[in-house]
Design brief:
13% strand, Rossmann-like_a/b/a_fold, three-stranded mixed β-sheet, 270 residues, sulfurtransferase activity, 2 domains, Alpha-Beta Plaits, alpha/beta, Rossmann fold, NAD/GMP_synthase
């Protein structure tokens, strides 16, 4: 591939010697895993977290992607909500990443890998991401960030590499659907997962179902809203989400946007 940034990325990874890629199956980690395979061959491996806050369909997609890339794939079981984040504090992402990436580093050390790498990209530093502090403290490498690769560049390069994730919508762990200060419950995560999967199957690719207790707040892109304003479809969606455990179902009139539950944090900081 005749792209200077991609060449720089490959050389960067080669210099690391061997790596474990924290692999979610998203656009960034898939692109990084493909590059790691090219740069390091069997000196690279994928490690995927399995937990109640990761949708099951994402785990299955991750398995298929790793199989296609042709690299070692291991799984890290995080079966219960970590005590420190039980009430979803504002620094939840920092606490969670500290706990999880400590386990990932332990895996890497025990299996003889030099470094753990993750898919943080150059655009991620512009959002509220307390988890980045944890990665820095644990000395996790972020090759895409360090080689100044933006999300759009990663998508373009992924397309050139024939990766099926090149146009995959952004996803985040299910904990990001629950307001800060709310007790995290596995049953809430399950109803969010079922609701989002149902809406995706209905053709809404970029969707969030924010959980406010008994209320589901649906976010879809503005361009998809007209399709939602169909009485029959709205009734069907409402009935289905109530089957999953919600009592009330609403549509966010501002539409889908990443980090919408971070607005209160940003306002307090201003």
């Amino acid at each position: 591939m005749n792209n200077q940034k991609y060449s720089n990325l490959i050389n960067y990874l080669k210099n690391l010697g061997s790596v474990v890629v924290a692999f979610s199956g998203g656009v960034d980690s898939t692109f990084l895993l493909k590059a790691a395979k090219e740069a390091l061959g069997d000196k690279a491996a994928a490690l995927t977290v399995v937990s109640p806050y990761i949708p099951k369909w994402e785990i299955e997609e991750a398995k298929e992607l790793v199989k296609e890339i042709g690299i070692r794939h291991e799984f890290l079981e995080v079966p219960v909500i970590i005590d420190e984040i039980k009430f979803n504090p504002e620094d939840r992402c920092y606490l969670c990443k500290t706990a999880v990436f400590t386990m990932v580093k332990d895996f890497a050390n025990k299996n003889g890998y030099n470094y753990v790498v993750d898919g943080t990209n150059a655009d991620d530093i512009n959002d509220y991401r307390p988890g980045l502090r944890a990665l820095k403290e644990l000395e996790i490498k972020s090759p895409l960030l360090e080689n100044k690769l933006s999300k759009n560049e990663i998508r373009e390069l992924s397309k050139e590499l024939n990766l099926p994730t090149w146009n995959k919508p952004p996803y985040a762990c299910l904990l990001s659907r629950i307001p800060y200060g709310t007790e995290l419950k596995v049953e809430d995560l399950e109803k969010i997962e079922k609701s989002e999967r149902y809406l995706m199957d209905k053709g809404f690719r970029a969707v969030r179902v924010r959980c406010h207790g008994d209320l589901a707040r649906i976010e879809v892109p503005i361009e998809d809203m007209l399709r939602l304003f169909d009485i029959k479809l709205m009734d069907e969606i409402s009935s289905k989400l109530k089957e999953f455990g919600f009592k009330y179902v609403s549509l966010d009139m501002q539409g889908y946007r990443t980090g919408s539950l971070n607005l209160n944090i940003e306002e307090k900081g201003n």
